[in-house]
Every structure is written in C-alpha cells, then in structure tokens.
Amino acid sequence: MGSSENVKKFTILLVEDNPGDVRLTKEAFKEGRLEIEIHDVGDGIEALDFLEKRNSYSHAPRPDLILLDLNLPRKNGREVLSVIKQNDRLKQIPVVILTTSSAESDIIESYYSFANCFITKPINMDEFIEVAKAIERFWLSTVQLPVKKT
User: What CA–CA distance (Å, rounded) separates 18 from 109?
Assistant: First the structure.
C-alpha cells in the first residue's frame, strides 16, 4: 500500500471575483503540506449553484471549507453566507470570510450571520502565504470537520 493512499484530500470552495486574488490564493495554498483541491467561482449565484449542484455544477464535490469574499457581483457574500447557514445540508460547512474589508460593521455582521471566522486579506504575498498556512493548519489539520455527505 502506497503512502499516498492514506493522504486525506481536502476540497475548498473559493468564492472570489478578483482573478488576481484567485491566483494568489491558489498559489498560497500550494505552499502548504496538505493535498488541497481548490474550486473557484466568481460570484454569489455561482457559489450557491456549486453548493446545490445546480446547472453546470451537477458533479461538484462538497467542500470541506468555504473561503468567501464579501464583495461579489450578482449576490454578495453576506447573502451567500445567510443562505448557507440557513440550509440544513450546508450549514455545517465552515465558512471563512476572506475579504479586503476590515470594517467593524462587516466583521460584526459576518459573525452575526454565523461565519466561522473573519480574515482581512493581506496585500503582501508573503503575508498571504502565512494566512493560507494558518487556515490550513487550523481548519484542515487541527479541528475535526464533519464527515462529508453528498
């Protein structure tokens, strides 16, 4: 038996409309130690389609973790978070708000809507890699996540 068979693979749904931030996030997670598959969508409607396996996402995997930007087209991150946390099949998936905002009102509203944590995106690549490593260490290595159900 190869050791690769024992490696746990994690799935992250990245909800981000800025292509530069998508690329930066994917690069930052490549620096980590875990095997992580990142799926990205560019707006809130696509995020909900992915999570509900609708339209072109009928075979989308259930994510272990959602990284959610607040400022999205079509349906913003606040609305997406609200839908996720009110849905019995989705609400146990941890949602990390990863956004450029550091506004106290955004932080309060996110936690009020049951976000699992709130992180303001660093602009510097090295700092961003450190944030990705911290997310990986905590959410994918330290905490116990619920067993995936399809």
Answer: 22
CB 44 within 8 A of CB 95: no
The residue extents of the domains of the chain are 7-141
- 7-141 is a CATH 1.10.2020.10 domain: no
- In 3-state terms, what secondary structure has residue 109? helix
Mind listing the pLDDT tens digit for each residue in 8-52? 789 999 999 999 889 988 988 887 778 899 999 999 999 999 999
d(CA 150, CA 135): 24
**DSSP state, 33?**
S
Q: What DSSP line would sit under 54-104, residue for residue? A: -GGGTTPPPPSEEEE-SS-SSS-HHHHHHHHHH-TTTTTS-EEEEES---H
Residue 6: band (very low, low, confident or very high) from pLDDT cuts 50, 70, 90: low
